[in-house]
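Could you please consider the sequence and fold following this short note?
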Amino acid sequence: MVNQRIVLIIANPNDSVIQFFMKRLGESRSQIHKFRLLDQRRFAQDIHLCDAYWWCGHSEKIAHEQVAGVWNRMVDQHSEDNPSAQAIETFATYLMNSVYPSVLNRPMAGLSNHAKLYQIDLLQLTRLQKIDSLMAINSTPRHLGLSEDCIYKSASGVRSIVQKLQKDDQDRWISEPVLFQAFIEGINIRVHVIDQEVIACYCKSQAVDYRYAQKTEIKRIEIPSWLIAECIDISKQLGLVFTGIDLLLKDATYYLLEVNPAPGYAYFDIDGEITNALVYYLTSLCKR
């Protein structure tokens, strides 16, 4: 007899997103029994993995056929100096990519964000607009002919502070890949897609990168139905279930900045709607 189906959360419990989610989940109580958090730091210590099941501690076993779905927050590798833990991470990645029926999100689907310009080029858009972008290395902004009407940020999935190009930056040597984009002074909009659910907010501040501003106003907003449909389609094109899509709005035109495959959504969840949508989606997997 197969035991009750559950949803795995594979993560580091110190992850602020997981802490936020688990706190909200604990407050609701009604659904918490459907989740099992696997602490990535404990791999090869008291969490082990084989072809048939996970085993945790001395007695708990979770058969792979019990797993209705997974929330993958294994965003950092912690096993460089531990070959046994590294083997578990590798096997867990295989299970999430190829075995478990529903994963939010499959590791292979998140790879597009490791090269932001590649991700943007991949997408087929209808009414959303792409921003003029350039990835550069081993040069200077002056040599590239870049004006001060552009911003620059990490070209990979590594988080960085978005900054506006200044006059003093023109002769700075670009020693690692940097993504330059045309600067558009508009309204920052963050859209979270959870399967078919779309939740949007605007983020208002005086800074170029509102995430690092001293004061940022975040407010839930409604977006046009065509934009809802396009955001869902963007997620599908990238093979993602849960995304954080960054947009800019200027003069009634919406521009796409990037798609985050492991969104740090807690910053934007001002009313609990995103957490509620995540819980609803993940628990619905147990009924399939």
Notes: The chain has three domains: 6-105+277-287, 110-129+184-261, 132-182.
